[in-house]
Amino acid sequence: MSYWNWDSTWPAPAKLNLFLHVVGRRADGYHLLQTVFRFIDRADTLRFEPRSDGQIVLATPIPGVPADSDLTVRAGRLLQAATGHREGATIYLDKQLPMGGGLGGGSSDAATVLLALNHLWQTGLNRPALEKVGLALGADVPVFVHGQNTFAEGIGEAFTNVDLPSESYLVLHPAVHVPTAAIFGAPELKRDTTAIPPAEWRYGQGHNDLEAVACARFPAVAEHLAWLKCRAPHAMMTGSGACVFAGFPQRAQAEAVLADIPPGKSGWIAEGLAEHPLAKIL
């Protein structure tokens, strides 16, 4: 779309996993998953400036994350490698989504870098090609490139798009960083949930297989989830944690629960999106 340009502020929205089942494991150790990704209107934002020296530079580094490890820098470099593009970019990241929260913030940032620089550099890659580039960065990156609320399978790269009802989500953020690798590596993780044919999934169906492991290892996650379940029995954890959430048909319902939150807990309300804000850029 022509209105996206170098002066634009580019959104990188969070996602919620409306369920997350581990249905098997490949010989290479990757877990086979089924999940529904829903985008919400809580987001990081990025800006870009062109560079003539071919470098990808993050002007707003995250403390403790080396530049070579940062997903935004890696995304820009991978796009250069995939397309042979020789110009560079300076990236400005306004980080709003918590790290280790299960909201996909780092993956979403990387996907927005791919979508934005593909557009700004006019490299010509289509969305499926960008999804393949994104998969090299992590299993959650392709869905943000894909841009639609979707039933995802495999290691997170096979999509069946779904229409989801309008909902307001109350999200609670326990003040802990849950490492994804620690949850997936836990010996007690259930890895044999029966697969659901995508066409048979219905909104509200399913659970999060990672939830029990995260709650056992991170008491703050268990505490926040228990509090929310008392007010919304359908509440669950998103991703590998730490955030927990519940959906409500009316925003006022979510606001009423948030108003009752005790000291020491924090949360916010986000609206479910019909699609990624950059869904129509390609």
Architecture blueprint of SSEs:
Layout: E1 10-25, E2 31-51, E3 56-58, H1 71-83, E4 88-94, H2 105-120, H3 127-135, H4 141-146, E5 150-154, E6 158-161, E7 168-172, H5 180-184, H6 211-217, H7 219-231, E8 236-237, E9 244-248, H8 251-259, E10 267-271
Parallel strand pairs: 3-4
Antiparallel strand pairs: 1-2, 2-4, 2-5, 5-6, 7-9, 7-10, 8-9
Folded structure, characterized:
The protein has helices at residues 71-83, 105-120, 127-135, 141-146, 180-184, 211-217, 219-231, 251-259, and strands spanning 10-25, 31-51, 56-58, 88-94, 150-154, 158-161, 168-172, 236-237, 244-248, 267-271. The longest helix has 16 residues, at 105-120. Helices cover 28% and strands 26% of the residues. The termini are close together. α1 packs parallel to α2 (105-120). The chain has two domains: 10-161, 2-Layer Sandwich (Ribosomal Protein S5, domain 2); 168-271, Alpha-Beta Plaits (2-Layer Sandwich). The strands form two sheets. Strands 1, 2, 3, 4, 5 and 6 form a six-stranded mixed beta sheet that branches. A four-stranded antiparallel beta sheet has the order 8-9-7-10, with helices on one face. It is globular. By secondary structure, it is an alpha+beta fold. The protein is built from eight helices and ten strands.
Rg result: 19 Å
Question: What oligomeric state do these chains adopt?
Answer: single chain
Q: Give me the CATH architecture of the largest domain, please.
A: 2-Layer Sandwich
Write the CATH fold name of the largest domain.
Answer: Ribosomal Protein S5, domain 2
Tell me, briefly, the overall form.
globular
- Largest beta-sheet characterization: 6 strands, mixed
Q: What is the number of independent domains?
A: 2
Summarize the amount of helix as a percent range.
25-40%
- Determine the N-to-C terminus distance: 7 Å
Number of strands: 10
Tally of alpha and pi helices:
8
Uncertain parts: none
Order of helices and strands: EEEHEHHHEEEHHHEEHE
Classified by CATH, the class of the largest domain is Alpha Beta
Strand content: 25-35%
How much is the average pLDDT? 96
- Secondary-structure class: alpha+beta
